[in-house]
Amino acid sequence: MSLNADLFRELSYIADDEESMRKVLSYIRKVVAQRRKAIACAPSVVAEEAVAYHPMTKAELIADLNEMCEEVKLIRAGKLKGQSWEDFKREVYIPTKN
Questions:
Q1: Terminal alpha carbon distance of the chain
Q2: 2-to-5, 6, 7, 8, 9 alpha-carbon distances in Å
Q3: d(C-alpha 11, C-alpha 24), whole Å
Q4: With CB atoms 3.0 to 4.6 Å apart as the test, which of 29, 30, 60, 67 could cross-link to 56 if both were Cys?
Q5: What is the DSSP string of 46-62?
Q6: pLDDT digits (tens, 9 = 90+) for 43-86
Q7: Which pLDDT score, from 0 to 100, does residue 45 have?
Q8: What is the model's pTM?
Q9: What is the pLDDT of residue 83?
């Protein structure tokens, strides 16, 4: 059963008792206030890692593609060692399912 359904089921048991409902509402408001405070004080991961977006120009894109093609040619010719999948995952951080 979902958490929301559990919550509403429990609230239905005290719905006719106004004093109990007031206590629950007061407690919920305190929890919400604490959560808002925690969120406001927590450092934002996005803010820490944010880098201004800079779209690549056509020339930059072509230069990158040319560089990649040269690397592929060198790897195929055996003059350069390719990167393993495990190293690539660590570099780019692709979470694995356990």
A1: 25
A2: 5, 6, 9, 10, 11
A3: 9
A4: 60
A5: HHHH-----PPPHHHHH
A6: 655 555 666 777 888 888 888 888 888 888 888 898 988 888 78
A7: 56
A8: 0.41
A9: 80
Report the candidate in 61, 65, 67 with the shortest Cα–Cα distance to residue 80: 67
Helix pair angle (3-14, 18-41), 10° resolution: 150
Give the integer Cα–Cα distance in Å for 72 and 3: 52
Residue type, 95: P
Q: Contact 61/54 with Cβ under 8 angstroms?
A: no
How confident is the prediction for the chain on average, in pLDDT?
A: 80
Q: Is residue 97 predicted with pLDDT exceeding 80?
A: no
H-run or E-run covering 79? none
- Kindly state the tokens that stand for 92: 């780019």
